[in-house]
Amino acid sequence: MHLVLERRAERSVQVALASPLIAIALTLATMAALFWLLGKNPLVALGVYFVDPLTDAYTLQEIAVKATPLVMIAVGLSVCYIANVWNIGAEGQFIIGAVAGSWLAVRTQGADAGAWVLPAMLALGALGGALYAMIPAICRVRFGASEILVSLMLVYVADLLMDFLVRGPWRDPHGLNFPTTAEFDPVATVPVLVEGSRLHAGAILALMVVLSGAVLLGRTLKGFEIRLVGAAPKAAAFAGFDGRRLTLFCFALSGALAGLAGIIEVAGPIGHLQPGISPGYGFTAIIVAFLGRLNPLGVLIAGLFLALTVIGGEGAQIALKVPLDLTKVFQGILLFYVLACDSLIVHRIRLVATPRKPAHGHA
Amino acid sequence: MTDLATQPLLQAIEISKRFGELLANDAVSLDLMPHEIHALLGENGAGKSTLVKIIYGLIQPGSGELRWQGDKVELAGPAQARALGIGMMFQHFSLFENLTVAENVALGLPAGEPLARISARLAEVSRAYGLPLEPRREVWRLSVGERQRIEIVRALMQSPRLLILDEPTAVLTPGEADQLFVVLRRLRQEGCALLYISHKLEEVKQLCDTATVLRAGRKVATCDPRRESAASLARMMVGADVGPVRAAAARHAGLPRLVIKDLTLAPDDPHGTRLKSVALEVRGGEIVGIAGVAGNGQDELFAALSGERTAPESGNLVIDGEAVGLASITERRRRGAAFVPDERLGHATAPRMTLSENTLLTGHAGGMVRRGFIDRSATLAAIDRITAGFDVRKGTRDPEAMSLSGGNLQKFVVGREILREPGVLVVSQPTWGVDAGATAAIRQALIDLAGRGSAVLVISQDLDELLEIADRIAVIFHGTLSAPLDHAAATRERLGLLMGGSSADALVPTEAGHALGA
To answer: Which label site among A67, A131, B313, B473 has the fewest CB atoms less than 10 Å from its CB?
Structure first.
């Protein structure tokens, strides 16, 4: 007997809905085993991870704060992945967006420039992310370079560029030599929603991005184009859609959203530009996109869930004395299971009898 | 061993196979005798492929059994079938373009035999059966007919005692088909049993000794095709009379609506065909056919006409008096042109998208989109019109394209374009792999469209189709398009020679002289 993976005649709707849930269940089981191996009580550990953060107003707000960039980036990435365009470098576009927007904050520092500064910073952030994303897109369209590699490599370029800026030209002169810009002026800061918390107006923006993404993909001709190019490129060419122009569009859109998330993060919860502004949001958003079934509404739920694991991981670090890396392990396992379960939507596993050796003597 | 001549080589007894809701084979029995060419007839979806795959060991029967020379056998896979002496030639060639003939043959043989010996055996078999093949040539250099020769030789090298052929003449010129028949008759004489699947009833009458007819998974008749007429065979397959296509009333050619001028175009992939100075006029009210063996530039010509590839110059293509050689496919559609490619799934439609979305695929240029938003009621109304007008049968109102049968999806794809009332329609292989009922409906729709004053260009490898519906027929060979022949002058023989690369001038010098003078 052996197992075979065979294509289903029809896409299974039940499995499509259940797939992320199965993946989460499998991840939890694996995590429980991991905790057990580390000598922790698995039930207590999972409780610290997934239940405790939900019982406290502060951590609930923190979940929303963490989910904001994840969701914003993942909506853009979903558009890319649906169109079969593989932007893996959202982390770099996030950083460049933060840098581009921060430029204005640094330039207007202390000048009391007025209320236009923040909107202009957001626009610059989106523009910066979009332009940075155009590099892999143009390399892809013009020279046939793998957008996966180029976009991924540019993450490190972006990271080092930011490092250079905050250690060199943009360093806060009164910052005791720490590699950081000065604290942004109030006009260059995203306002908070609840006094005394870190929940900021960016969360509202993220919700708007989710709704716009859902409308774009579900109701517009552009959304149809995105889905068609991804599903059947030859039919898309027959429909008159230019796959190369769409590649540029997808990169520009996802880059802009990642850049917007970057400047919001810097001008919001952080308040200044410094190394390490992202704990890997651009990469975690890839998991969010797939866990959310590349559907903006699903991405919203998946983003909140992943944010929960980040907050839970911080809690576990303190309560259980486990390393923070465990959260990354968790996210990796989750992506692994999500992709594995996804293959069950179009395939099914079947147990078949191993064929016997051909009978001899007949020939 | 009993008397070999009267004992069936292979018996299929009460074979049934179910796929989900569909009963693909319902207690089908079949005896294949040595010294016999046995035709397997039926419309698409009648269960022919399922039965053949069971006999070749590709799928297992749900119930029933196979007997080889009287002994019950269970075939776990094609390797076991081949070990018994069952060979199969597939309709779609399974050849690697960049490998040589010998290398391709070696891939289909049991591992271990050195390539030099395979080459030698290959040369021997091809000489013995009069099927010339150069073992060291790469496949991409070969014509379709030569490629099929590889498949035959590959099958013959395993000395099959039962050879299954799935529509072997679908891509051959009449001359090439005749060469194939010589080989098949010789195999019969040598004692081989042949199972022959074809849609071409005349061919079956000419070649086969017995015919089994399947309809909706059941065997409806076993007969001697030589004693039946093509019409009576068709009636058995369909279960009803198939009426001839009627010509549109008083069709007369008007002004040229589609003009191709001196179109030369390099292929965009290394195995493609270069179009060389293609020129043609299609007038309103007429159907012009382009005949030719697959791979002679039809795909390139279709892409150039549709705008999936633009021409070098604007003037290379004129639609209703406007030069559109550089225009996109969407702009060409806005000027009243419509296109139906030959590949239903993946080119004409997105398989996993619904019919309403697939309507949008060619309809987004007009009426189905408002300010960038999809007008869903308009797309649904369009599929309802197509469904009603072209008798598209489907399970729900708006299913995924790939859930439709081939014939129904083809009716949908053709209907989608015809209901837009195009001034110019370019259609490639309109009835490829489509059953008789749908074929008649589609051909009628094309004739009626021309009757309403549109210019219709049909690219087809099916000569019978073109002879039935086209007013003039041109032949494409190696990227060159012949001058069109009028219906009266377009005999099978002349077209066959043009399809094989002989020029019309060499064939009939006096008439060619007329043509040049005209």
So the answer is: B313
Contact across the interface for A358 and B328, Cβ inside 8 Å = no
Domain of residue A124, residue span: 68-296
What is the DSSP secondary structure assignment for residue A268, as one 8-state letter?
Answer: I
> How far apart are the CA of B343 and the nearest CA of chain A, in angstroms?
10
* In a domain? residue A244: yes
Query: Beta B86-89 vs B71-73: how paired, if at all?
Result: unpaired
Cross-chain CB nearest to A240 (options B73, B329, B372): B329
Q: Which of A224, A355, A363 sits opposite B76 (nearest CB)?
A: A355
Does residue A130 lie within any of the structural domains?
A: yes
For B280-339, how does the pLDDT look when each residue is reduced to its tens digit (9 = 90+)? 999 999 999 999 887 789 999 999 999 999 999 999 999 999 999 999 999 999 999 999
Angle at A196 between CA A195 and CA A198, to 5 degrees: 95
Q: How many domains does chain A have?
A: 1
Q: What share of chain A is helix, strand, coil (3-state, %, to 5)?
A: 70, 5, 25
The tens-digit pLDDT sequence of chain A (363 residues) is 677 776 665 666 777 778 888 898 999 999 999 999 988 899 998 898 889 999 988 899 999 999 999 999 999 999 999 999 999 999 999 999 999 999 999 999 888 788 899 999 999 999 999 999 999 999 999 999 999 999 999 999 999 999 999 998 898 888 788 888 989 999 999 999 888 788 899 999 999 999 999 999 999 999 999 999 999 999 999 999 999 999 999 999 999 999 999 999 999 999 999 998 998 999 999 999 998 989 999 999 999 999 998 898 888 888 888 888 888 888 889 888 988 887 777 777 777 665 444 444 343
- Which chain A residue has its CA at the smallest distance from B84's CA? A363
Give CA–CA dist B241/B230, Å, rounded: 11
Contact across the interface for B346 and A360, Cβ inside 8 Å: no
The answer to whether A235 contacts B348, with C-beta atoms less than 8 Å apart, is yes
Using DSSP, state whether B197 is helix, strand or coil: strand
d(CA A140, CA A145) in angstroms, rounded, equals: 5
- The answer to whether residue A333 sits within a structural domain is no
Q: Distance between CA B485 and CA B475 in Å, rounded?
A: 9
Contact B329 A232 (CB under 8 A): no
Cα(A153)–Cα(B210) distance, integer angstroms: 67
Is A316 domain-assigned?
A: no
Q: How far away is chain A from the Cα of B348, in angstroms, using its nearest Cα?
A: 6
Nearest CA in chain A to B356: A224
Which residues from A are below 8 Å from B308, CB to CB? 237-238
ipTM, 2 decimals?
A: 0.83
Helices (H), B109-227: 115-128, 144-156, 174-189, 201-207
Looking at beta carbons, which residues of chain B come within 8 Å of A2? none
Nearest CA in chain B to A228: B350
Does the reported pTM lie above 0.90? no
Q: Which of A6, A220, A238, A360 to mutate to test the interface with B (most CBs of B within 10 A)?
A: A238
Tokens read off for B392: 């598209």
For residue A362, the chain B residues in CB contact (below 8 A) are: 68, 83-85
Residue A83: both structure tokens together = 């169109």
For the CA atoms of A293, A297, A299, A303, the dihedral, rounded to the nearest 10 degrees, stands at -140
Asked whether the CA dihedral B230, B235, B241, B246 is positive or negative, the reply is: negative
User: Nearest CA of chain A to the CA of B349: how many Å?
Assistant: 6
Work out the minimum CA distance from B1 to partner chain A, whole angstroms.
13
